[in-house]
């Protein structure tokens, strides 16, 4: 069964993902062993808050836009698969799997996976957004890529308390 999304629904999915990201990073900020990991997780939580503001600003504009029919089915299925397999799920946050991460490395691996998922989702989302909204999605994609680099660099550094 194919599921189709309006651009407004996609933005609301993105907002939900960013909120779950905030919850995840807030948990990791409190439970990280090293000060450098705590700083990165706090920064990422703050960036996710900024992304929510950007997406909320887009809602009024794009809700009038209708996804082209030739994209609706194909992208709907793909986006649903991304949503269904996202790391920043309600289950992750509510079960606090994040607090079960027995090391900063495991927490960083969870965060890296989540950032990769976000990048994939936003690239697909961008494809069906109206052209005037694409620069804002591009900005968020660039920031998510930056988050991925920061997390990867932190994972490579030896832990410092």
Kindly describe this structure:
By secondary structure, the protein is mainly alpha-helical. It has a single domain, classed as Ferritin, core subunit, four-helix bundle (Ferritin, Up-down Bundle), CATH 1.20.1260.10. It contains seven helices and no strands. The chain is elongated, with a radius of gyration of 16 Å.
At a glance:
The chain has 161 residues and is mostly helical.
Within CATH, the superfamily carries the name Ferritin, core subunit, four-helix bundle
Largest sheet: none
Global morphology: elongated
* CATH-assigned fold name: Ferritin
- Overall radius of gyration: 16 Å
Give the mean pLDDT: 78
Number of helices: 7
Instruction: Please report which band the strand proportion falls in: under 5%, 5-15%, 15-25%, 25-35%, 35-45% or over 45%.
Output: under 5%
CATH class: Mainly Alpha
CATH architecture: Up-down Bundle
Number of domains: 1
Unreliable spans: none
- Helix fraction bin: over 70%
Distance between the ends: 50 Å
Structural class designation? mainly alpha
Oligomer: single chain
Helix-strand pattern: HHHHHHH
Counting DSSP E segments of at least 2 residues, the number of strands comes to 0
Defining traits:
Ferritin; 161 residues; mainly alpha
Topology:
Layout: H1 7-31, H2 35-62, H3 69-84, H4 90-94, H5 97-100, H6 104-128, H7 134-156
Helix pairs in contact: 1-2, 1-6, 2-7, 3-6, 6-7
